[in-house]
């Protein structure tokens, strides 16, 4: 009896995993077609995804101002590291003028 249910559970687990994989694949396809993301041009060259290095002048203990590299979230992609390629098209869809 217990063995029967174990098999059922295994089947469900396997089925769910497969569905999830299929869903992910389908979702990726959907994203590529309707919602393509491209690497953010502002921060893709930096060492940290979604962040850009910018120099800030700080006063050191010697009394000298020196530039210090600090990381901050990229404004262009809000720290995501990628932006929507068809952002402009989408805003056009939003305004329906007849
Ligand atoms: Zn960015």
Summarize the structure.
The protein is an alpha+beta fold and 98 residues long. It has two helices and four strands, in the order H-E-E-E-E-H.
Defining traits:
two-stranded antiparallel ribbon, elongated, 2 domains, 98 residues, alpha+beta, two-stranded antiparallel sheet
How do the helices and strands line up, and which of them pair or pack?
Layout: H1 2-34, E1 37-39, E2 51-59, E3 65-73, E4 82-84, H2 87-94
Antiparallel strand pairs: 1-4, 2-3
This protein binds zinc ion.
Account of the protein in words:
This protein has two domains: 1-31; 34-98, no CATH class. The longest helix has 33 residues, at 2-34. The strands form two sheets. The protein has a two-stranded antiparallel ribbon. The mean pLDDT is 83. With 98 residues, it is an alpha+beta fold. It is 42% helix and 24% strand. Zinc ion binds next to loops.
Q: Report, as a whole number of angstroms, the end-to-end distance.
A: 66 Å
Order of helices and strands: HEEEEH
Number of helices: 2
Number of DSSP E strands: 4
**Model regions low in confidence, pLDDT < 50 over at least 5 residues:** none
Give helix % range: 40-55%
Biggest beta sheet attributes: 2 strands, antiparallel
Which class of secondary structure composition applies to the elements?
A: alpha+beta
General shape: elongated
Bound molecules: zinc ion
